[in-house]
Amino acid sequence: MRSAVLLLFLSAAALLLPFSCGDGAQPSDRLTVTDKTPVIDGSVAADEYSFTQDFTNSTLYAARNNDTVTLAFKAGVTGWVAIGTGSTVMDNAHIIIGYVKDGRPQLKEQLGAGHSHHDDNMAASGILNLAMKEENNATTLEVALRADTLIKPGQTELPLILAYSTQDSFMVRHSFRTTVVLQLQ
Q1: Whole-model pTM?
Q2: In the CATH scheme, what is the code of domain 22-184?
C-alpha cells in the first residue's frame, strides 16, 4: 500500500514539474515567424501576440516576424518590470527595466555584470520601439527588437530573463525572477 501511495505521489509530482515556477529555466513552446505585428503601446490586447507563458503573478508575451521580435512582460505589481535578452543569467544580458511614476514611464537599458547590472551604451541593442504602462494594479513593458540583432543565423533558442519588483526604484532588488528559453522556428 505504501509503495502504491509513493508511486502515485511521484507520478503527480512528475506531471506538475513542468508547471512549477521559480528561478530555473521554464519550458517553452516554439516562437514561430508569423505576420503578427503587435502595437507597442504598453498594453496587451487579446490575440495580439502569438506566444504567451504565465508565471507567478505575471505573463510573458512574444511575437516574431521576419524583421522584428516583440516581447511584452506584464506583472500584477505597481513596481518595476524587466526583460533581459541574450542570457539566462544577468551576466551579459541586455536588460530593459522600467516603472511608471506619476503617469510617466521611467526606463533604462542596462548590461548585466555578474549578479548586478549597470547603465551601458546600448547603441547597437536593436531596440526599435518600447512602451510602458501601469493600469489596474499591473505594469506592462513592451519592446520591439530588430530580429537580426537579437537572433544570429542558425540560432535555435532565444534566452530571456524576466523580473519584477513591488517598488518603483531601479535600486530595489527583484521580488520575482525567472528564465525562459524560447525555441525558435
Answers
A1: 0.79
A2: 2.60.40.1210
Q: Using one digit for the tens of pLDDT, what is the confidence trace for 83-118?
A: 988 777 655 678 888 999 999 999 888 665 545 454
Q: Is 18 helix (H, G, I), strand (E, B) or coil?
A: helix
CB atoms near residue 112 (< 10 Å) = 20
DSSP 94-149: EEEEEEEETTEEEEEEEEEETTEEEE---TTS-EEEEEEEEETTEEEEEEEEEHHH
Residue pair 83/96 in contact (Cβ under 8 Å)? The answer is: yes
Domain boundaries, the chain: 22-184
H helix runs in the chain, sequence order: 2-16, 147-150
Residue 182 phi, psi dihedral angles, 5° rounding = -80, 130
